[in-house]
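From the shared-data thread, chain only:
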Amino acid sequence: MKKEFIKTIIVSYGGFFDGAEKRTLTHEGEKIFVEREFYNGAFDNGKPLYVGKTWSMLLDELDSLHIDEWDEGYDDPDVMDGTQWSLDIKFSDKSEGLHYWGSNKYPENFDAFMKVMEMR
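Structure, as tokens:
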């Protein structure tokens, strides 16, 4: 993954019954900016995000997870009304972005990813 060209990270996670969040991360220099959208009764618990973390630190943590080796999609069709998620990474060098998604199924290191994204 060309982390030096990452300009935007968009993560969506949740389900109908537990609520859902879409988080868009951008940066200016090393400062991380977060835009949050909530759905289905999800709420912001007021917890500050990415405290003491720079954009480079965040990208290093993501790089260590080897996200670029994930499959494009993960689906468990036998689960009804579960949890859906997606990750979109957009680049500043006009290269094609990355898109990953799942419905009730996840990459092996998804919990570590969610911890890096401070969504768990």
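The helical segments are 55-64, 110-116.
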